[in-house]
């Protein structure tokens, strides 16, 4: 199984690098195709249709290979478990808190009591050296 994972990793890395290179080689809509390969060089190098069809087809094939290898690596790494929640898989109902409970506890913790307000009011006036 480790040999298959290693081969999939190699294929995925090669396809990712090839997609990056092929995307960078493609030219924008307004760019002149002859500028990259010289005047008229693209028709002799890639055929009569030029480099656009070759590069876009190669990019699509590389992207498809990348997605297939990614899916295969996920399926192999998960050992056939489908629907696993990841880090939340071992969470029980006792450990779950609702959002309103969290907000209520934060609001209560952020509001100081009246005795604390009086004590801090004296300390906050002026530039004083802390106790």
Automatic annotation (TrEMBL):
Subcellular location as annotated: Cell membrane
Biased amino acid composition, Low complexity: 106-118
Pfam families given in the database record: SecG
Membrane disposition: Multi-pass membrane protein
Region (Disordered): 106-131
Keyword 4Fe-4S: no
GO MF entries: protein-transporting ATPase activity
One GO cellular component, as annotated: plasma membrane
Transport among keywords: yes
Alphabetized InterPro entries for the sequence: SecG
TM region(s), chain numbering: 7-25, 54-76
One of the GO biological process terms: protein secretion
Keyword annotations of the record: Cell membrane, Membrane, Protein transport, Translocation, Transmembrane, Transmembrane helix, Transport
Protein family membership: Belongs to the SecG family.
Function (record text): Involved in protein export. Participates in an early event of protein translocation.
Protein name as catalogued: Protein-export membrane protein SecG
Naturally occurring in which organism (per UniProt): Aquella oligotrophica
């Amino acid at each position: 199984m480790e040999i298959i994972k290693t081969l999939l990793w190699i294929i995925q890395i090669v396809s990712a690098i090839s997609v990056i290179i092929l995307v960078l080689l493609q030219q924008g809509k307004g760019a002149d195709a002859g500028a990259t390969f010289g005047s008229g060089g693209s028709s002799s190098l890639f055929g009569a249709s030029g480099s656009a069809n070759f590069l876009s087809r190669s990019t699509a094939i590389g992207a498809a290979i990348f997605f297939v290898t990614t899916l295969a690596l996920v399926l192999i790494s998960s050992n056939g478990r489908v629907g696993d929640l990841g880090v939340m898989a071992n969470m029980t109902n006792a450990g779950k808190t609702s959002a309103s409970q969290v907000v209520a506890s934060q609001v209560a913790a952020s509001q100081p009591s009246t005795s604390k307000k009086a004590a801090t009011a004296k300390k906050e006036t002026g530039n004083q050296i802390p106790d």
